[in-house]
Sequence to fold (106 residues):
Amino acid sequence: MKHILLSMLLLTATPVFASGTITTGKIDKWGHTQDSLVLIMQSGKQVLITPEKCSVQDFYRTVTEHEKVDLKINARVIEKNTPFTIVSKGSNGNEKLHCSIKEITY
Fold:
């Protein structure tokens, strides 16, 4: 009987995120500083993301030197170590810069 109740609880539980959790659905737009991503939330709050696993020079060059730049985050919740890709369209076609999140500053 305990196992049946536990199974029912697990099947009907919905994911609950902490109030300070950043989800990709809450991002309105994004920008950058010299060495960080700036996520602008639907609430107007700005969140700084410090990247890692990509060089700061490559990051800055990619977001400033290309005519079209998109941010791809293949996760629902944004937290430390979440991977992201910056896709830029330049004269040589699409380029991808793969990074992950080192630090989140609210």
Remarks:
- Residues 1-17 have pLDDT under 50 and may be disordered.
- Residues 20-105 form one domain.
- Strands lie at 22-23, 27-32, 37-41, 46-52, 68-72, 77-78, 83-90, 93-105.
- Helices lie at 2-12, 56-65.
